[in-house]
User: Fold this.
Amino acid sequence: MDTRSHILAWDEEYRHVRWGGPRPVSAVEKEVLPGSLVLDAGCGNGRYLLPLSKKYDVVGADVSMNALSEARSYLARSDRHAECIASTLTALPFSANSFDAVVCYGVMQHLFESERTLAAEEIRRVLKPSGILFIEVFGTDDMRFGGHEVEHNTFLRNGGIIYHYFTEQELVSLLGGFVQVDLQSIRTEKTFNGELHTRHLIKGKASLQKAIPR
Assistant:
């Protein structure tokens, strides 16, 4: 199949996706000093970009021009600023050792295996030696797991967008270029149409240096 079509599908997706409000960035705030340079890799319409802009010099990168346009609008309405750049994660247009932190929430799961490998390499490249990656992906126990499988645990959905579901070990392996990886699986129960279902996320951070004990 055309492995570019799932990237192009995001522009159509953001023709009707609406702002869901800002998302918490407390994990970043605990680790990264105010004023640091932060990349929101796959920023979408700005749900993390907006709260990050309140404390950091932040850059948002996304493949969808529609998403970036909405992100700029939300920032302007809140009298906030962040640079918004059209880019894939597999070829980030930034110099090596540029960012103090990279936030990549809900993005890696929408890439094919080869793209995930390139994206992890690119994120590692643009991080400073002391930098931290904050990451969140779907886990294999998630209620949405399944469908038309195009790669192992990777499914094609309506509209052309793909969804990959990770095991914790798989994500650790993907982040093998990092020195320290700290992850946790988060399972929550949700009721839909009277039935109980599981939402499964794997979330955490990866560092290029070992943490120094305090």
About this structure: The beta strands are 37-41, 57-62, 83-86, 99-105, 127-138, 148-151, 154-156, 162-164, 180-192, 195-207. The mean pLDDT is 94. The two ends are 50 Å apart (CA to CA). The CA atoms of residues 11 and 114 lie 22 Å apart.
